Amino acid sequence: MPASNHVSTAKLLLTLHLINILVITEVSSSSCQCIGYEPLIVNVQTSQFTASGSHVDVDIQPWCSKSNMLGWHGDYFGVCDKLIYGVWIEVDFLENQMLAGIVTWGRATKGLYWPRYDQFVTSFHLEFLVDKSTEWTNVTENGTTVIFTASTNRHEAILNAFSEILLARKVRLYPFTCSGRPTLRWEFIGYSKYSIPFVKQRFAPPGLALCGLDPRKCFRWNRIPVRVQWSGFRTRKNETRLSLRGRSIACDRRHVTVGMEKNCTQCAANEIRYDLCAIEGTSENGQCQVLCRLRESQVGQPINLMLMVNGDEDTELCAIDSDASLTIGTPGRTLIHDWPSFLEKIRDMY
Ligand SMILES: *[C@@H]1O[C@H](CO)[C@@H](O)[C@H](O)[C@H]1NC(C)=O
Ligand SMILES: *[C@@H]1O[C@H](CO)[C@@H](O)[C@H](O)[C@H]1NC(C)=O
Ligand SMILES: *[C@@H]1O[C@H](CO)[C@@H](O)[C@H](O)[C@H]1NC(C)=O
Ligand SMILES: *[C@@H]1O[C@H](CO)[C@@H](O)[C@H](O)[C@H]1NC(C)=O
Question: Of 84, 96, 188, 293, which is most buried with the most CB atoms under 10 A?
Fold first, then answer.
C-alpha cells in the first residue's frame, strides 16, 4: 500500500493557481497498478461457502469446490439437457477483494469410481455484492449480463479474465449449462500487491483513490488543480507512458504536470525534487499522453509520481492508465495449460 507521506508540491504549483470550481471525477478501475496476484478460493474457510443446495455426498459439498478437491455438485439431477435456473454457489471473502478473473474446472478425475462422473459446467454467469451493500449485481459488459464460457472437459483449467477489475465481497456463480451434472471447482485471481494513485485534495474525502473502490459512485472535488499522488509505481522498462482519461483536459505543460520523485542524496531533509515527464498531447482516443523516462536506478524500483491537472469548470480527471499495468491476460476465455506455473508467473509481476 502506498505510504501517505507528505509531499510538497510547491515547486510544481508555481504557475498554477487554485480556483474554486467543482470538479466531478468518475472512478475507474484501470488506475490501479497490480504488481502481484494470488488465488483466493484455495485459502478460504469452509464456512465461507454457501450454495442453493448440493448432492448429499460429503465429498462434493460447497467447500469441495476448491481446485484441489473433488468439486461442488449442485442440487440438480437433470442431465444437463436444458438450461439451469436457480442453482448457485457463493463465496464470501469477508471483505472487498479486487478480482481480475475466475478459473473453473469440472469434477476432479479422482475419488471412488471417478471415470463414471464426467461432469462439468459449460457456461455460467456471476453476481456480486460489494461490502455493506445488499444489492446483488450481475457482472455485465456493455450493459448485458456476461455468460462466461467455461469447460469443455472436466480437467482443464479455464480462465475467464474480467475486462475490468471486479470489486466484491461476495460472488455467486450460477451454472447455466452443463455436461453430465453441474459439478465444478473454481478459483478467483485476486490482487495481492498493488499501487494506487491517491487524490490529494484539501476538500476531498481522505484517502480517496483513483481506483475501483466503489465502482458505482462518482467523486467530486471542489478545487482544482486535481492533485494525485501515486506512490510505489513500478515498471521494468526505462520509460512509461501514462494516459489521462477525463473530460476537457487541456493536454499541455501549462495545465498538466507529472513529476517523478528524484532519489536526491544531496537534498536537504524534507526537500523533494521531481523529474518532469513529457506532456505529449491528446491521442486519437481523446486521452492525454504523458511520457516518463526513468533513470537507470529507478527501473524496477518503486517510484513516487505526483500529478496535477489544472483546467476549468468542465475539467474532469477520471483515470490514469499506464502501459506498465500488466494483467493476467487479455479479457475473455483462455485455457491454462499449467496451473502451478501460471500461479507462479502472476505472483509477482510488473
Ligand atoms: C442477472 O442476469 C440473469 C440472466 O440474464 C438474470 O436471470 C438475473 O435476474 C440477473 N440478476 C440480477 C441481480 O439482476
Ligand atoms: C462490448 O463493446 C466493446 C466495444 O464496442 C466490444 O469490443 C466488446 O466485444 C463488447 N463486449 C460484449 C460482451 O459484447
Ligand atoms: C531503454 O531501453 C531500451 C530497450 O529496452 C534501449 O534500447 C534504450 O537504449 C534504453 N534507453 C535508455 C536511455 O537507457
Ligand atoms: C538512491 O541512490 C543511491 C545512490 O545512487 C542508492 O544507493 C539508493 O539505493 C537509491 N535509493 C533508492 C530508494 O532508489
Answer: 188
Instruction: Give the pLDDT of residue 317.
Output: 79
Whether residue 222 is found in the same domain as residue 187: no
Q: Is 62 found in the same domain as 174?
A: yes
Ligand 1 atom closest to the Cα of residue 137 is 13
Residue nearest to atom 2 of ligand 2 (CA): 142
- Classify residue 334: in a domain, yes or no: no
* Whether residue 147 is found in the same domain as residue 286: no
Identify whether 349 is part of a domain: no
C-alpha 299, offset from chain centre:
23
Residue type at 136? W
Q: What is the pLDDT of residues 132-190, one digit of tens each?
A: 889 999 999 888 999 999 999 999 999 999 987 888 999 999 999 999 999 999 999 99
Give me the domain span that covers residue 188: 37-193
Is the distance from the beta carbon of residue 68 to the nearest atom of ligand 2 less than 6 Å? no
Q: Establish whether residue 266 lines the binding site of ligand 4, counting it when its CB lies within 6 angstroms of any ligand atom.
A: no
| Domain limit, last residue, from 193, 227, 253 | 193
CB distance 141 to ligand 2 below 6 Å: yes
The domain spanning residue 161 has which CATH number?
A: 2.60.120.260
Q: Is residue 340 part of a domain?
A: no
Give the count of alpha carbons within 13 A of 264, CB side only: 14
Query: Same domain for 156 and 15?
Result: no
Structural domain count, the chain: 2
Q: Residue 98's pLDDT band (boundaries 50, 70, 90)?
A: confident
Of 107-116, 220-229, 247-256, 339-348, minimum mean pLDDT range: 220-229
Q: Is residue 98 part of a domain?
A: yes
Q: Hey, what's the cell of 83? A: 438450461
46 C-beta closer than 6 A to ligand 4: no
Task: Quickly count: other Cβ atoms within 10 Å of residue 89's Cβ.
Answer: 25
Q: Which residues of 195-209 are buried (b: 16+ CB within 10 A; e: fewer)?
A: bbbbbbbeebeeebb
Q: How far apart are CA 217 and CA 22, in angstroms?
A: 16
Q: Is 301 in the pocket of ligand 4 (CB under 6 A)?
A: yes
pLDDT, tens only, 244-257: 887 888 999 999 99
Closest residue CA from atom 2 of ligand 4: 263
- Pocket probe for ligand 2: among 142, 285, 330, the residue whose CB has the most ligand atoms within 8 Å is 142
Average pLDDT over residues 57-78: 94
